[in-house]
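Lab meeting, item 3. Inverse folding demo.
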């Protein structure tokens, strides 16, 4: 239960917010119950004010980019969900692109392409934001955020201090933001190389075509549901267990790409988690490999 003083302070500080909002439109999975409070700061300063207020009032907080790698629970999400999408400034400086956490990866890739800078083509088609991509060390087609990040600006939600990061402790779907949940990404700086605009555009188009051919983009999902286990591909292991099309409630192992769990329309988080458990059990029984969820569960 959020104290009355919090609502009054939000109004006083002019921080945009919504009370009791459905979580479904906030994730690409289109699954979830209700958020108690959704906050939409439009700058790093407003985000810092928001975090300070919530910390003082001892309100639980979660950060959300585009919600393309999360599964929300079916019930009430207590506390505050802070959306970064309003923090959307993006600029080019020499061969670097500097982008706030809420910038979409599409905008990031297009900004680089328009300046004939190469190195970020791989993010075109990943439906996330800069903050989410830095957190997850998003990657595709041989590229990853760890290849291009030179600097970041983070806010420590516990101390209220900002800090510049030159080391993001990146690993496969690992970063300093996952190992230290107090840190909120405010900005990323990416070092690129001069390239040929035509080649950059062709590369991005080719990635988009491959995604359309291989991924079930016609259904809501959170992308690859499981991490890639060392020496294997999760999708191949699941397919080899004969689980393509396996369905629990409204959640299904995609027939097009077994690494994706798709929402057939009315899936609940409970359906997805039961399907996850079943798949993990079958893959372990057959291959002795334990699948680990890549998607972040927020409930
Ligand atoms: C169709 C589809 C295809 C995909 N393809 C790929 C792919 O090729 N490669 C890949 O790596 N991923 C892929 N994904 C997954 C997802 O798009 C990426 O992980 C993306 O980087 C997540 O960004 P987001 O802004 O949506 O993060 P969210 O889903 O909003 O958040 C993900 C995590 O990051 C945290 N977070 C978000 N913003 C911040 C911030 N500013 N500071 C601190 N923490 C933050 C959240 O709390 C959460 O734990 C795909 C997803 C879909 C639906």
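The presenter then showed the designed sequence:
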């Amino acid at each position: 239960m959020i104290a009355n003083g919090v609502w009054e302070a939000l109004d006083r500080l002019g921080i945009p917010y919504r009370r009791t909002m459905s979580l479904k439109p906030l994730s690409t999975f289109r699954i979830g119950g209700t958020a108690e409070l959704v906050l939409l700061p439009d700058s790093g300063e407003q985000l810092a004010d928001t975090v300070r207020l919530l910390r003082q009032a001892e309100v639980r907080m979660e950060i959300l980019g585009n919600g393309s790698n999360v599964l929300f629970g079916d019930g009430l999400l207590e506390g505050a969900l802070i959306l970064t999408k309003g923090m959307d400034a993006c600029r080019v400086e020499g061969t670097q692109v500097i982008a706030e956490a809420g910038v979409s990866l599409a905008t990031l890739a297009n900004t680089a392409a328009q300046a004939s800078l190469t190195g970020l083509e791989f993010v075109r088609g990943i439906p996330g934001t800069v903050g989410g991509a830095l957190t997850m060390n998003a990657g595709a087609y041989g590229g990853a955020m760890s290849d291009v990040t030179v600097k970041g600006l983070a806010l420590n939600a516990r101390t209220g201090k900002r800090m510049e990061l030159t080391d993001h402790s990146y690993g496969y779907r690992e970063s300093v933001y996952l190992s230290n949940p107090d840190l909120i990404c405010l900005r990323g700086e990416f070092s690129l190389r001069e390239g040929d605009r035509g080649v950059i555009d062709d590369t991005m188009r080719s990635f988009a075509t491959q995604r359309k051919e291989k991924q079930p983009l016609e259904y809501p999902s959170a992308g690859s549901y499981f991490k890639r286990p060392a020496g294997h591909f999760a999708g191949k292991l699941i397919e080899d267990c004969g689980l393509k099309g396996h369905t629990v409630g409204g959640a299904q192992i995609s027939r097009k790409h077994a690494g994706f769990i798709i929402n057939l329309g009315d899936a609940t988080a409970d359906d997805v988690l039961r399907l996850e458990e079943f798949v993990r059990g079958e893959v372990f029984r057959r291959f002795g490999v334990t699948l680990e969820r890549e998607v972040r569960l927020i409930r």
